[in-house]
Amino acid sequence: MLSFNLLVAVCLAYVCLLFLVAFTADQRARRGKVRWLRGPLVYTLSLSIYCTAWTFYGAVGYAARSGLEFVTIYLGPTLVLVGWWGLLRKLVRIGRVQRVTSIADLISSRYGKSNLLGVLVTLIAVVAAAPYISLQLQSVALSVQVFARDGLPGGTADSHITALWVAVGLAVFTVLFGTRNLASDERHHGIVMAIAVEAVVKLVALLSVGIFVVWGIAGGWEGVFDRLGASRMADWPLVPSRWAGLTFVSGAAVLTLPRMFHVLVVENSDERHLATAAWAFPAYLFAMSLFVLPIAIVGLDMMPAGANPDLFVLTLPLSQGETGLAMLAFLGGFSSATSMVIVASIALATMVSNHIVAPLWLALGAPKLRSRGQVGRIGADAADVRGVVLLARRVSVLAILAMGYSYYHLSGGGAALSAIGLISFVGVVQILPAMLGGLFWRGATARGAALGLVTGFAVWLYTLYLPSYGAAGLLSAGVIADGPWGIGWLRPGALFGVAGLDPLLHCVVWSLLLNTTAFLLGSLLSFPSPVERMQGLAFVNVFDQPKPSADWARGGPEAEDLLALSQGILGAEAAQGFFLAEAMAQGKAGFLPDTTPRFLEALERRLAGAVGAATAHAMLMQVAEGAGVSVHDLMAVASEAQQILEYSSRLEAQSEELARTARALGEANEKLTQLSIQKDAFLSQISHELRTPMTSIRAFSEILMEGGLEARDQARYAGIIHEETARLTRLLDDLLDLSVLENRTAQLRISAANLHDLIERAVQISGSTAPDRRFLIRRDDAAEHVAIFTDTDRLVQVLINLMSNARKYCDAERPELRIQVRTRGNRVTIDVADNGSGIPRKAQAIVFEKFVRLSDTARAGGAGLGLAICREIMENLGGTIAYLPGQGGAAFRLSLPLRRTLGAAA
Amino acid sequence: MPRQILLIEDEANIAEAIRFVLMRDGWQVSTHGDGSDALERVRAIRPDVLVLDVMLPGRSGFEILSDLRADPEFWALPVLVLTARGQDRERDAALAAGATRFLPKPFGNAELVATLRMLDPGAPGRTAIDPGAA
After folding, report:
1. 0.90 exceeded by the pTM?
2. In this complex, which of A688, A697, A723 lies closest to B84 when CB atoms are compared?
3. Closest CB to B17 among A691, A699, A855
4. Which CATH architecture has domain A4-365+380-431?
5. Is the ipTM of this complex over 0.85?
6. Which CATH architecture has domain B4-121?
7. C-alpha distances in angstroms, A747 versus A794, A850, A866?
8. What is the mean pLDDT of residues A205-214?
9. Is domain A636-737 in CATH 3.30.160.20, yes or no?
10. Burial A866-875 (b: 16+ CB within 10 A, else e)
11. What value does the mean pLDDT take over residues A301-305?
């Protein structure tokens, strides 16, 4: 007999071997030598974690209890793998394109990065995993007991204690292995390699036992069939509904079990491996199941009644004294159990840490960190983040194993292995509607998915999971027998009164029916968010996107492509310099370095300096993987683009302002030029006005100086000189006046007066300057008696000017001047009109301009500044002067406030 | 036969002074004060020398001069332009329009007389200054 100590020693040695394999694989992967590690063979072998201790031990038990039905467990995965082109390929492609890290991530990502869905899927997966892990613990505990029965001093070992130790051992192993480091792509080369080794070990072990049983005990296939005829196995009927249901459930479970999703999708490095796995994995399953029936038949025949058929694989060789073979069988079972637990707990821990711990940690005010993927790229402050995530994973692993052990402990550890496994299967299959809907139906929404998941999960919990704890469990015997509160149609085993159905099938039918209904209704009755819509499109039409290349590290992007990209961004010289330096750093000649991850990171950082981190990453991804850009990338790009847009619109605003300024400058310049021209014209006009009288004065004064004139002429010429001098003085006075008025620096002397008196004064003065002409003046005295508060002298000046002009230019036979005053509110208007021919229409517009004279100089007698001065005065008084056309003669209207307030004119 | 001068000047006082000075120098002087019909006056009188102001009511002296120079009959007519703005630009414009000489206002009487003598070979006072030319 094998001693218990030896058993423990062999186990430890085996674990050490696995550790070594995993360590070596990790080392090779780190050096970039992953070609062999990631080949289709290793991929196919890694899929064998589907075959757990349940398959290794339980299948024989299943066959012994239920005949051929165990085949369904192999049939489902076979169908899924064989039909890989339709479903698995899409799943793997999406996983690759979207950089999915777990099944929770897949669902969450598909439905608009909904973390609620991530949490839901994680919850279902963890709860469903508990029985499964418990199953592994139970099988290892049972197998250890077989050996320990005689070997352990002090009698029979307590199976619970054994299971606890196994759980602890597995937890330590997983923590050491699966959470040693964080890989941004969630790939574990070492683990996958170890699983592949374990896959070989368990296959060899089971085949060895099978060959021994068939040819060593039964004496060939004839002996087996002889025994079959004698056993009751031949009588077990096939139940079509159970066959169909179980095949479906096991097929669906291959897709939805977190650990299967992990090895199928996340660890997949090349889609083409699926083509190999499509035949190789069913072949593996066939080999694993080949001897199940013979072992069961022979076991039932040979072993004493009451022996646990789950342990036939172990007990048959032992009964024949083949301890070496038994040890191999034990190692096979141990391999099955450990590989499942390790991968399952890694996959689950990833989900728990990414969808529950990290969001919580972030919500509790941790420094900024996105959950998945980015962990490795955070940079300087990543150390503590990595610590937190690693710790979360380790604690999750421990918690998951603790749950498995609790289930084992609570359920009593006595149930058949296959029954426990199926409970888990049905649990995770609840994810299937949301997954398939997400893959093939763009109308599927997060709300629908959540409703379906919750509904299916609840039905599963109520009708299968909770009852599986037994009467001592969470549901009392009363509830199980009579329904809650005695409501019969709510009995867990006969929902809605559908009794007589197999409990497992009952749960499958109801949970999936209600789950799918809720999913469909929820999706139809809700609208997807924009991100959901985008993701839905990306998932459903994943094959429309460019095909991703095999592997970042393996196939790698072409350095030339990267150089082309970089030249476009950095400029040819800078890009070539960078590539040259990197190639030299790698010890390579030329300027095309190997596209190692380190180089890609450096390049990404370099590009990020030019185009922003998200854009750089998305661009590199595009070139490197040919992968479609993930929504996360797109969002980041969009926000960068947004910033650029804002920046450019700011620039645009600035340039618009510049243009405005330039326009204003141009206008100012134009105005200045205009002013300068006007000033020029003004100055030359003044020059002319000054030189004209001076010419007369000079000429006549010279004539007078020369003498010899008659006294009459002498007097006349002196008179002309005097007249021209007066004209000069008047001109200078007018110019000064105008300048003061135009600059608004004229001192206004505001005083109160009766407007009638002011008009009277103006009439008197203007009449005195040209008394030779009889002028009829029409006035309305009553209207003129208005109190006015203004600079009275200035107003009189304007009136005089207008009246003098009338006297000078009115060409009527009997000249008349009409003065009309109207008061409206605070304003008064004074019209001064004569009955002459008026001012020609063409001249009306310029009549107020400086130096405008409508008649010859002699008649005007001034420099043509009178009306210009009038206009300036009126503006100073807060009023206006305007020519009134169509009055039959020259008519001007003055309009001014009755009460001039100082400062209002400024 | 006395030499004939046509003076086109709108400022009555200036016209009177020039007329006085030139007549004293022996010229026969006609005056005209409006720009619009000045050309007709030139054609009617056919003076030996034309004295032309620039700032005229109706038409500017430059316009009158341009039209005059377009007529072959008056290509060689000596024209003295009187300008009042005192700018080089105006002098250039006067010469461009075809002025023989130009005189900025205000000018001395002797200056005016000397300029006119220079313009016309048969000027009345010319023999007194330069007997050899007779």
Report:
1. no
2. A688
3. A699
4. Up-down Bundle (1.20)
5. yes
6. 3-Layer(aba) Sandwich (3.40)
7. 10, 22, 19
8. 87
9. no
10. bbbbbbbbbb
11. 75
